[in-house]
Amino acid sequence: MKAKVHVTLKNGVLDPQGKAIQHALGSLGYEGVNDVRQGKFIELDLAETDPAKAKAAVEAMCKQLLANTVIENYSIEIIA
Amino acid sequence: MKAAVIVFPGSNCDRDVAVSLEKSMGQKPLMLWHRTTEVPADLDLIVVPGGFSYGDYLRSGAMAAHSPVMQEVKERAAKGVRVLGICNGFQILTEAGLLPGALMRNRDLKFICRDVHLTVERTDTDFTRGYAKGQVIRVPVAHHDGNYFADDSLLERIEGNGQVAFRYASANGEVSEASNINGSRNNIAGVFNEAGTVLGMMPHPERLADPQLGGIDGKPLFDSLVEALCK
What we know:
Chain A: This is Phosphoribosylformylglycinamidine synthase subunit PurS. The complex is a heterodimer. Chain A contains two helices and three strands; from the N terminus they run βαβαβ. By secondary structure, chain A is an alpha+beta fold. Chain A has a single domain (2-79), classed as Phosphoribosylformylglycinamidine synthase subunit PurS (Mth169, Chain: A). The N and C termini of chain A lie close together (5 Å). Chain B has a single domain, classed as 3-Layer(aba) Sandwich (Rossmann fold). In chain B, the strands form two sheets. Chain B has a nine-stranded mixed sheet with strand order 2-1-3-4-11-10-9-6-7, sandwiched between helices. In chain B, helix 2 links the parallel strand 3 (45-48) and strand 4 (82-86). Chain B is globular and about 45 Å long. Chain A binds chain B through residues 10, 12-14, 16-17, 20, 64-66, 68, 70-71, and chain B through 58-59, 62, 66, 94-95, 101-102, 104-109, 147, 149-151, 154, 183.
């Protein structure tokens, strides 16, 4: 069973790297990019076979290590 | 007084801070490897030094915050043992939940390595009693992730409690956007926990604590701790 975790900065937290990417896209001629938010994608291969248990475990992992909830949000997708 | 310096894989300021401590204390601090859980019971001070612990993977300080020795550090901090985190040490202490807020990538995305000026916001703590109220000190910074963030409500609480230790300022002590080197909220360069027993700061006092290094503005911090903690 696999879990896909997206970690992104919370709204209201400035994202200097996202801003730099936005400027770079602009200088490459890509117009109309209103905003860029950069985050992390983490893929986990889990021994667990129960989706609910897997989700609960990954949720705990996110809170304890994978995300810093002072500044980041996370979302979890479990793929059977 | 008994002090210990934690050493993680990737720490690189552990020896410098040990030298500074020894100069102020008159004896060498213990060096504690990150895997140890045997921490002497009678420690007065624990220093979490600068560097790039665990390669700063995931987030600066995130891995180190969960290393075996940090569980001990948390327990000691809860008992009032003084804890000082410098640079990566500050990042580790925020990740470990011992200090409020988080340290993000510098606003201009560059690694900043130079001397900066700081205002000393509090002089009634064990860390800063050797400074004068409103004193401006010159201390080096060397970091990529020093942009201090706290959301509005947390920031209000930190300011209300007087938890700000140092702010980035100009040479004459003006705290403004122009002197904010990395985008930190309210120019915060260092914060205390609520009790004032844990301090985290991005600048490196140990790098200007000896005349031969070109300045001694960092030395009063170590002298303060020795004065406060020597029984």
